[in-house]
Write a structure and sequence with these properties.
Helices cover 22% and strands 27% of the residues. A hairpin with a 2-residue loop joins strand 28 and strand 29. Helix 4 packs antiparallel against helix 5, helix 4 packs parallel to helix 6 and helix 6 crosses helix 7. The structure holds beta-D-glucopyranose (BGC). The site of beta-D-glucopyranose (BGC) has 10 residues, from helix 3.
Amino acid sequence: MLPPQPSPVRFEHLPDGLGIGVASPRLTWTLPAGTGSQAAYELELGRGGRTHRTGRVDSAEQILVPWPGAPLTSRERATVRVRVWSPDTAGPSRWSTPADVEAGLLDPADWQAVPVGAAWDEDPDGARRPARVRKDFRLGRPVARARLHVTAHGLYEIEINGRRVGDEALAPGWTVYPHRLRHRTHDVTGHLTEGANTVGAWLGDGWYRGRYGFDGGTRNIYGTDQSLIAQLEVEYDDGTTDVVATDATWTAAPGPILTSGLYEGETFDSRLHDPAWATPAGARPGDWTPVRTGTRDPATLVAPLGPPVRCTEEIAPATVTRTGDGRYLLDFGQNLVGRLRVTVDGPAGTTLTLRHAEVLQDGGLATRPLREAVSTDTLILSGEGPLTWEPRFTLHGFRYAEITGWPGELTDNQVVARVHHTDMRRTGWFECSDPLVNRLHENVVWSMRGNFVDLPTDCPQRDERLGWTGDIQVFAPTASFLHDCAGLLDSWLTDVGVEQLPDGTIPWYVPVIPGEPMWTPIHPGAAWGDVATLTPWTLFQRFGDRELLRRHHPMARAWVDLVERLAGPTRLWDTGVQLGDWLDPAAPSDDPAAGRTDRYLVATAYFAHSARHLALAAAELGADADAERYASLADEVAAAFRRRYVLPAARLVGDSATAYAIALAFGLLTPEQRRPAADRLAEIVLADGARISTGFVGTPLICDALADNGHLDVAYRLLLQTECPSWLYPVTMGATTIWERWDSMRPDGTLNPGGMTSFNHYALGAVADWLHRVVGGITATAPGYRAIAFRPRPGGGITWARVRHETPYGTAALSWKLTATGMTADVTVPEGCTATVELPGRAPLTLGPGDHVLRTADLEEAA
Ligand code: BGC
């Protein structure tokens, strides 16, 4: 029997199809339960009152399937549905529920809007009061449909007739603005009325011209203006159209936001706020003066590739404590990224100060780790009754907040923390019998949430919050299991390509902030620059998107070619500044690159690994000559690595855990060297009582290096260690996110004195990928999880684990528990996928889609 219908189709990696920037969007659907596999599909495209059907297409493809018709034109709407055939049934399934897609402005010539902002003189280096811009307009007939295409130089929040449009925060996000400025399309039909209307926008400095970067930051990175670019397109009942675009007829006025900055926080004077300002009644000719218009090449305006940043959760304070001096200390019980929303009433001029911090020290906020990020919001009351307020153009990383100046008694329902990040679909879950490991996993999830704020950042709290390439390079496998981050990372990798230097150098962080002394001129570094080769490959493996691999391939190739030139005929990359095994716990607090592992050993190992992955990518893309060339390069580099860094008896130069871990995990040793090297790695780990001795490079690799080479038990010892340094030590110290340093907080409760002491850095959380694959037991063995290995490898006294992943094909899940006679496992294989299951000590078996219950007692023993 053929089950009812496939899922509605999805477009590219987007949450919905409105305003799509791809003229021929690829389509993905999942099969109805019980289909098994797909023998054929048929797509139906409805556009312009006509429908077009592909007819039956004999194909098993169901993810990122090519658009089945002529490309969309700007603003064109289409409806898509699909039906499928299984190999066992004659007839097709029912059609899927139709999904709508609507192109945004695909042609630069579609844009009439120009940037508009304040015309008054500003001190380009001083504090600047953000502007608001507005425009009154009349619509002569009933409106059938209206779209707002909008972006800004700086940040914006836009309203029509006093009602906010959309719920996106920190729009338009951060891209390499001169090349790519993201805009978004909103359906605003319901915001408009026949007759008088008003559109108005709040503006903020954001990344465009705010102060950003280390040591006081750089101002005006992209420009000195703060402007809105908006185009409202109205279609009337009778089919005629009108456009209201930002132009010289708009007006500007300073708003009630007195100052605003991503690091600094925001000051809002509600005495200056007229709630009707963005309605036709809000026109006060004296206050509003003509805007200054600017320029922007419309060819640089791009549609989003992923979901926006928005508030995804509200958290009430766990405790509110009045401190002796009339301040309130709030503990939200969770280190998070977002901002406070307060509801407050008090006399005019009352000033509330909201400060934020991740940890406490001596009973008060520990703000030293924030460095120069002041993270303070200030609200001045108007005295006109209760007000609900939260800042607009800033975010803070905090668990604790301190409020000064609250009028009267603060009760816990008057303040809420609003969690903000890119609103990615959650796709991965893990749980096991060890509560500390569960909290570790939860901390990884929270650090991903806090640091995926439009782009993947290192940390969310101090004067940094940059797209560090090395951090995401090691974390991408974990990230792509936990959330659907394909669109976000594809967009960011596009910026990495834009920022790549002509010689192939990948900057340390993207977007680049010019002039940072330590990182200028930009020079290449291993593990960080390798994001160019490894992260597109990870995304291809996890999301099955070959086009993405193709798009970023020139960047990857230019990177490997550069390293090949740098290494020269020796094939050893042993020059230049390298960060090595960054934050090895043995490195001094003020020199995190000075770890135990030779930096050039790390650099050459990554060279081999990137060359290998470039070869794999080339093969995948049908570039056979390249595949061969880079595979031989990888072999040669591995051989050079062995000559230079492998001593007799498979000892590695420096004898550090990271050296062994990288050599094993990157496949750089001969088969004969593997076992003794792994034994030595195990010995090193145990000699230190199974505490961690690795940094950013070794930590993501060490458990695999051990487990795949006969030392699963030692990997578990490391995982379950609670003494510092270890993954669980922070958990025992009450951590609710992953720390930057193994000892960001020391056992005596004092903070690490290093200048970099973040409590929210995802890199060391990359071990979660091992939890998912090895403890839980789900691994993709073909791109997009089309083939899956279910291979739980219990140890460390863990008696059960449950892992689940929403693959592009649907749910994959494994829940195992140890019993008196072995193991039982509940396995779910997504429709359309194949699986091998290998339970401990048992021969692997092949399973098809659906739910299966397996018991080791019933299975054949492994040969
Ligand atoms: C960041 C890191 C980054 C490192 C490299 C730090 O300040 O927070 O996570 O990768 O610098 O130097």
